[in-house]
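Entry 12.
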Amino acid sequence: MTMSNNLKITVSGGFNKNGEAESLSELELHPETSLAVIGPTGSGKSEFLSDIEQSASKDTPSGRTVIIDSEGVDFACEGSGVIAQLSQKMSFIMDGTVERFLNLHAESRNKGGNGLILSTLEVANTLCGEPIRLNDPLHGLSGGQSRALMIADIALISDAPVVLIDEIENAGINKLKALSVLSSSSKLVIIATHDPLLILMADRRLIMKNGGMESVAERTESEKGILEKIKEMDRYTERVREDLRFGVYPLSSAEAVL
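Predicted 3D structure (tokens):
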């Protein structure tokens, strides 16, 4: 399947946990944009992602209807693999090496060439602290390595135009680079998160409340300024984290900020 920029996802509202109609009756989503799904724990963020993943048709607890369409083609009916999903817990059932996995996936997408495989590995290695090698067995990868490999694979090899992410901030990878990699691949990125950095990086945010879609907010110009300040704080935290990991006392970094 070749991704179309005309792809559109329409989410028609269902009901919140009290059985009341959702405040937001309809939501439209398009490629090359990002949506942060936010709200307190238990507000329905994961259920919203699940509805998208299942192309819900009033057959889930929320009662929502999700239509994924491009130029009149109903992807849900064709089963064309329009959605890639990344969760906090990643594991491989394939018994093989990183290189074999990437090659098989590329071949299944009618893509190939050593350049693509090496580029995917290079991107993956910018996301996690411990290097991944082509001859590493998949089952031997750490949780962070597995997620980094899958993010790079989704961005460079997968044709899926929609990416669903559940709380990437707890995934043991560089969350800022991960979202940047996915956002630059012209896909629609939908991420459930509590992290202010990831929330402000998204073009829009969907506020969930009591299991229902409450409202949608666009990122403002003033929020872009706040985002830059939070990025600097995140870079500082990352420097200190890496110093501590390698047994370096981060006093100089702390003094520079404090």
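Annotation: Residues 76-80 have pLDDT under 50 and may be disordered. The CA atoms of residues 97 and 138 lie 5 Å apart.
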